[in-house]
Amino acid sequence: MHLHALRQCLADAEALAGIPPAELRALKDRAESNVFNLVAVGEFKRGKSSVLNALIGADILPVGVVPLTAIATILEYGDKPAVQVVLLDGSEQQVATEALWDYVTEKGNPANQKGVSEVRIVWPSPWLKSGVRLVDTPGIGSVYRHNTDVTYRFLPKADAVLFLLSVNQPVGQAEYDFLKEVRKFAGRIFFLLNKADLLSEADLAEAEAFTSRVLEEAMDGPVTVFPVSALLALEGRKTGSEALLAKSRFPAFTGALERFLMEGKGNALAASVAKGLLRLVSQARFNAELALSTLSTPVEELRHKVAAFEKKRGEMTQEKRDFAVLLEAEIKRLADQDVTEDVEAFTAKLAGEIKAKVKTRFEAMRHLPSGKLHEDLQRHVVDEVRAAWDGFRREEDEKLEAAFQALCERFSGKIDATVDELYRFSSALFSVPFEAVIAESAWSAKSRFYYKFWETPGSLKIMTTSLLHALPKFLGDALILRAAQNYGRELTGTQAGRVRYDFAQRLDKSMRDFKLAMLERIDTTLEGIETAVKKGMESGAENAAQADGRGRELTADLARLNALAAQLQTLTAAA
After folding, report:
1. Rounded distance, CA 498 to CA 452, Å?
2. CA atoms in the 13 A half-sphere facing the CB of 274
3. Facing residues of 163 across strands?
């Protein structure tokens, strides 16, 4: 499937009469959203950030001697460079490119104290312009456990993986085990043996052979290892030196990556979009042929057929009502049953976990003065509850998005069947041939189901400081522990209500958007057929010259639609 040819077909369709603009826009959006997540993973200090810098030919991502990357960083295409920081509460802020270090590195943002979810970098790179999205993840296996957690959370989003290894650090057990996990998620893994410039040719060949043997054992099959020097590749890209690029061995890797992207990236999606456009063109052709046919049909005969069509329109009105009722019931079930059950189960589980964690923290910090202990436990409860609900939210996001998308596809199929029935009815009524094109839904759940998590929670109230200080420490500490555990339970419950409400609101808004778009499909179909018939009826009041002119205009429209249909049939056949 040639993406350029498909984009040209979409552009040509915009200039043709009879193609519904809203549905065409949905197809264009779907084609443009053909994003391919290429995720760089590996142990810390293997050179993931350096390899991505080399790919785009610029020093964007921070690199250094100590473990640096602490936050998932996403590089996307844009005409002008920009950096956007996405926080855990869903808010976003634009920052200067030079400020990137302050958000994505362990030094600038230790233990993610700034509450960053991810950072998105927009950059004018040819690699990114084709729809590839590069993702830099924190290294696994460092002393920073939270960095490893971030990497594991990003794996399910990977379409392909760059697995980074290094010539000066043989494959270890941690990397071996991690690779077993990566295999579950990625459709294709590229193995890069970085820092190849550090070894002689003989030593590099030995390192490559050893690495290949270990990886083949982990992958249960043959693998290709690409020795590279990201350092030399970046320098070669920046200076335009072909000699440095050749010495870096990078072209062998990028060539394989380009072939993979050309052959595999987006073929299924592109074929689906082409089929969807062919469906719209087929409907527009029918309307044009219907209009041509009515030019030569006696007006009285047309009036009888229009009366029969109006009766069918009345049936469609009831079908639209039935569709809306069923859709709303499904969304209500999803919100009231699925979301509520998940939230309640998680709340019960979390309440017990928080109680135990507070007790553990209390035992570790009970040497502190009562006032300090009180403050420490309050912070600990807030951090633990926040982290737990953030984790739940991410998992529920993906679950609900998948459920909502499946529901949209099912109901979109019902609407398409209704539209096809309208065309078949009209085909038989007006004796104009029509062949339905079956295509996947172009609808996509654009808005993600996130909730704005954190409002500042109420303070942990125990008693007045003077009374607390008057008690023996063991009695005061016992009160502090009990109050902290109660606080954890209350905070857990408060956030449960917020999560449930926000997910329900999101579902309702997304449902209303979807319902409007689907019902517009039926209305657009009815209007298109009615408009075609009206042209024939109007011709009865025109003179011969006017009628001939209308006929030539419709014939030209039909020829353009037929030409576009032929192009699309060629594209779908080649997919």
Report:
1. 9
2. 27
3. 41, 191
Q: Is the pTM of this model over 0.70?
A: no
Lowest mean pLDDT among 27-36, 97-106, 333-342, 388-397: 27-36
Residue 509 amino acid letter? K
With contact defined as beta carbons under 8 Å apart, do 196 and 204 qualify? yes
Q: Count of alpha carbons within 13 Å of 18, Cβ hemisphere only?
A: 28
**Spatial separation of the C-alpha atoms in residues 88 and 33, rounded to whole Å:** 24
**Cβ-based neighbour number of residue 159 at 10 Å:** 19
Average pLDDT over residues 168-177: 78
DSSP string covering 280-295:
HHHHHHHHHHHHHHHH
How confident is the model over 510-537, as a mean pLDDT? 87
Share the mean pLDDT of the chain.
82
d(CA 552, CA 548): 6
Confidence at residue 69, expressed as pLDDT on a 0 to 100 scale = 52
Q: Strand pairing of 92-95 and 36-41? A: unpaired
421 and 564 inside one domain: no
Question: What's the structural domain count of the chain?
Answer: 3
Q: Is residue 314 part of a domain?
A: no
Q: Are residues 446 and 561 in the same domain?
A: no
Look at phi and psi of residue 529 and say left if phi exceeds 0, alpha if psi is from -120 to 50, else beta: alpha
Q: Where are the alpha helices (DSSP H) in 431-472?
A: 465-470
What is the per-residue burial (b if ≥16 Cβ within 10 Å, else e) of 534-570? ebbeebeeeeeeebeebbeebeebbebbeebbebbee
Within this chain, do residues 278 and 402 fall inside the same structural domain, yes or no?
Answer: no
The whole domain housing 333 covers: 325-539
Which tokens go with 466? 């003077």
Task: Tokens for 371, please give them.
Answer: 């006032």
